[in-house]
Amino acid sequence: MKNSHVVIITGASSGIGLSIGQHLSSLHYQVIGTSRNPNKYPNHPFRLIYMDVLDNMSVKDGIDAVISQYSRIDVLINNAGMGMAGPLEEMDLEAVDGLMNTNLNGPIRVMQHTLTIMHKQQSGTIINVASLAGDNGLPFRSIYAASKAALMRVSESLRIELRHTPIKCTVLSPGSIKTAIAENRYYAPLVESSVYYKQYKASLADMDSHVNTGLPPISVAIKVGKLLNKKKLKPHYRVGPFLELLSPLIKFLLPQRAYENLIAYFYNLN
User: Fold this and answer.
1) pTM of the predicted protein model
2) Which of 56, 138, 232, 243 has the fewest CB within 10 Å, making it most exposed?
3) Long-range contacts of 259-262 (CB under 8 A, 24+ apart)
4) pLDDT tens, 9-64?
5) What domain range is 36 assigned to?
6) Cβ-contact 6, 70 below 8 angstroms
7) Residue 119 is inside which H or E element, if any?
8) Cα–Cα distance list, 31 to 13, 83, 218, 222 (Å)
9) Domain count of the chain?
10) Which residues belong to the active site?
């Protein structure tokens, strides 16, 4: 039996978005995923529509297409995003702009068009997928961490703006999840003459190791399913390996220098 709730998931062709869509479909939600290349996935387990979160008109057209068929949007899951790694000093600024446009401006565009619908129907839930990286300054992931931290602050602000409405908003921050994000991450070149060469090289190996040993994407999907059953949502939820989930508490308890030393140790930078 079909659930009457309509869910849009951005970036749903693979990884976490795909897993969320499959899980919610199994719970009988009406799931519509978005992708910049939906034709590449003719046998996708749920419906994919074209949407490029970098293009405001593309976002509008995608939302309009959902409304024309389903007449409502009950849940928006902003999952589309990209990764980035490299020394801040050596980052290509066009790539930096591209990442911030995808990870921050993209969700904002989709929320702007979706909120208009949710206000009209007097209901709706928004889940913005951030990252545990947004809780911390991480070596060689400064721009990625900043983009996710900014998305958290936008979501917190939006929650307060929406408190006089029936619309709910929260952030879900995954830690290390076993996906192909490493294949889709922008990397600053590894240059032997760089003053960061040794540390950056070690950090890259650690990043890949954390992803390869991370939790399966279904762990995030199950968390989303549980959140959608809650009457009230907290501002922030996290899912990931146990030690990573402790990082905000450890950061709060430790002096800053001690915490930085711990992060450096974790990334083999001592």
Assistant:
1) 0.94
2) 232
3) none
4) 999 999 999 999 999 999 999 999 999 999 999 999 999 999 999 999 999 999 99
5) 6-266
6) yes
7) helix 106-121
8) 12, 25, 16, 15
9) 1
10) 144
pLDDT digits (tens, 9 = 90+) for 133-181: 999 889 999 999 999 999 999 999 999 999 999 999 999 999 999 877 6
Q: 13 and 184 in contact (C-beta within 8 Å)?
A: no
Helix (H, G, I), strand (E, B) or coil at 76: strand
Residue tagged 């545990």 (tokens) = 132
The token pair at 46 is: 């749920």
Give domain status of residue 190, yes or no: yes
Domain annotation covers residue 68 = yes
Q: What is the CATH number of the domain that holds 138?
A: 3.40.50.720
Is residue 1 assigned to a domain?
A: no
Percent of the chain with pLDDT over 90: 83
CA 146-243-247 angle, to 5 degrees, is: 40
Total Cβ atoms within 10 A of residue 256: 8
Q: List, in order, residues 6 or more apart from 153 with CB less than 8 Å away.
A: none
CA distances from 157 to 81, 151, 160, 169 (A): 20, 10, 5, 10
Task: Give whole-number Cα distances, 81 to 100, 139, 145, 169, 260, in Å.
Answer: 9, 20, 12, 18, 27
User: Order of strands, edge to edge, in the sheet holding 30-35?
Assistant: 47-50, 30-35, 6-9, 75-78, 124-129, 167-174, 236-239
* Residue 30 φ/ψ, nearest 5 degrees: -90, 105
The bridge status of strand 186-187 relative to strand 30-35 is unpaired
Distance separating alpha carbons of residues 245 and 247, to the nearest angstrom: 6
In a domain, residue 62? The reply is: yes
